[in-house]
Structure formats: structure tokens, C-alpha cells
Amino acid sequence: MSAFKAAVIISLICAAAPAFAGYAEGEQAMNAKQYTQAFAEFKPLARSDFRAQYYLGFLYLNGYGAPKDLNTAFSYVKKSADAGFDMAQALLGYMHAEGLGTSKNKAKAIDLYEKAAEQGNISANLNLGVAYYTGDGVAKDIKRAIAYFENVPATDRSIVARYLGTIYLYEPDFVNYDKAYQNFMAGARGEDLDSYYTLGYMLQKGFGATADMGKALQYYRYAASKNHAPAQYALGMIYANGDGVIANKIDAYAWLSMAAAQGYAAAKTALAKLEDTMSISDVDRGRRQISNYQQTMLGSVASPLAESKAAMPAATPRTNVIIRRFRTRQ
To answer: CB 3.0-4.6 Å disulfide test: which of 26, 152, 222, 267 passes with 41?
Structure first.
């Protein structure tokens, strides 16, 4: 079953516009994360410049270069959005959606996202795609969600890849394993660990391709080495059940323990059942294996993409922005 986790992340997208006195310096300071200097440059310009108003609102919203002040942030961002600046419209939509400096108003958020999306704003297209995918503030409409996601330029496609991959893998009327694989590959290229995990899952189960446990393990291990709990759980269950490998309770114990330590509920349950079948000496060996993995494997496993091709395995008769993240299905 799907388990979506709303976690909106705000980032900055720099506008391409003529530089006035202080504006170029402000942008440069923003890019260098020198927020106090950026604030000083944008503050006097914000009296009349809609771009400076946007940046100043962003700074107040996040407490960068000035004390966090949601009401002041909302005021500046609204002035910029009222002037038709797409970046401000997208940010103001987010503030309405989350109730930052104003009351929550999903309908207003959608309206602002649509205005920004008409100007090609990436953040707005992303958030509209998520809204129609999840039915958050609008009636769920997978076809419209795909359309908004597809509006994201190819250079930024890794941002939406996991959403598109999940649609093509799980949504009954849209299942297309080749598209799912290609999108998860794009997500993996962007270092999205859920995409690595799902590629492993597809290869393990043979979705649209010949099952290949060897390749599946490569994707699982890479994600697991980055402390991705679902991948650690998957490895634990593979070794516990001997699924395509020789059963190994020691390895199973180690991977399940690492996932359980991160609060992964399924791993906690599986670990408890596994421990009931292990001797005291085996549990001790499992604990030593955890230490071994932590010292030799975590963070040091090479990405399988170095040797992998983007094409789907042979089948047997798929800027910085505001995004919503979600957990991959288990």
C-alpha cells in the first residue's frame, strides 16, 4: 500500500533578469549562501523591485539573514506575486497550502500554482502534479498529474522521476513497466535512494523483465549502504528467506537490525521473529556483522549505474524547487 509523506522542501530558484544596483550583488550573495549580505542588498530595493520583494520574503520565511517573520515574509511575497512574478506565485501558493503567514487555503494555493505554471515555473508544475496525484486540494486526476509532471524539463526530470515511476508501476490504468523503469533510472541518476530501492524491487520481482537477483542486490545494497531503511529491510528478508541467495541468518539479522534501528516497523517485526529462531551465539555473530557493515560498507558501495545501461533488461513474454516527497510503496 502507498504511504505518502508530505514533506515540502523550499529552495531558491534564481531569476534571469537585468541587474540593477545591488541586485546582482544580492543574487551572488544568495548563491553563495551569504544571507546577511543578500538581505542588506535586497532590503532597499524591495520598495519597488518585485524580484527583490520575492527574495526578501524568502529570507524572512526561512530566517536567513534576518529573524524569521512569517507575516512579513507573506507580505513581501504577495507584493511580488501580485506583480505577476512566477517564482513568487509558486512560493505564495506554498504558503497558502501550509498556512505560513496566513490561514491554510488549498484552493488559493492551486490557483497560484496554476498562474505560475502557465509561465513555465518548475515548482508550480511539480506541486500541481503532486496535488492531482494525491487529491490534495483537488479531485484526484492521474492523467492531469502526469501532464504537469511531464512539463518539467528533461534537465530536471530526476525531480519528478519517482512520482512518474510510481504511477507507471502501480496505477492500474497507467501501468507501463518500461516507463516505470526509465523514470526510476532517472531518479537514481539524481541520487534518489527510493528510486534505487524500487529498481531493486522491480528486478527482484521481474516486473516487465527477467528477474535478476544479482542486479537487484546491487541496487538494494547501494541504497542500504546509504542507510535507506526499506532497502536494508529488503536485504534482510532476502537473506532470511533465501530468496535467490543462500539463506544466511547472520546477514539477515544485521540488515534487519539496521533498518529496525531507524524505526522501520516491518523490520522490527521481522527481526523479532528471526531472533526466535537464532541461537545466542548466532545473535552475537549478527551483532558483530552489524559493526562490520558499518565500518566497511556504509557509504562505500559503488553505484550500479556506473555499469548499468538506461535500457530496460530484456523482457520475457518506465534549480532547486519546492517539492513534496513521499515514501515508496513497500
So the answer is: 26
Q: Are 197 and 231 in contact (CB under 8 A)?
A: yes
Which residues does 110 contact at the CB level (< 8 Å), separation at least 6? Answer: 93, 128, 131, 137, 138
- The confidence score (pLDDT) of residue 283 equals 96
pLDDT for 241-252, tens place per residue? 999 999 999 999
CA 72 to chain centre: 29
Long-range Cβ pairs for the range 306-309 (8 Å, 24+): 308/185, 308/215
- Domain parsing of the chain, residue ranges: 1-152, 159-226+300-318+323-327, 232-298
Q: Using the Cα atoms of residue 29, residue 32, residue 37 and residue 39 in order, give the sign of their dihedral.
A: positive
Q: Are 183 and 154 in contact (CB under 8 A)?
A: no
Grid coordinates of 185: 533510472
**Confidence band, pLDDT 50/70/90 cuts, at residue 308:** low
Rounded alpha-carbon distances, angstroms, from residue 261 to 11, 32, 209, 228, 264? 30, 36, 33, 11, 7
Q: Is the pLDDT of residue 190 over 80?
A: yes
- Residue 246 CB contacts under 8 Å (≥ 6 apart), including other chains: none
Question: What is the Cα–Cα distance from 31 to 289, expressed in whole angstroms?
Answer: 43
CB atoms within 10 A of CB 244: 13
How far apart CA 210 and CA 83 sit, in angstroms, is: 54
Q: How many CA atoms lie within 13 A of 302 on its CB side?
A: 6
Cell, residue 25 = 550583488
The count of C-alpha atoms lying within 13 angstroms of the C-alpha of 183, restricted to the half-sphere facing its C-beta, is 24
Distance from C-alpha of 126 to C-alpha of 111, rounded to nearest angstrom = 14
Total number of residues shown for the chain: 330
**Domain 1-152: which topology?**
1.25.40
DSSP state of 275: H
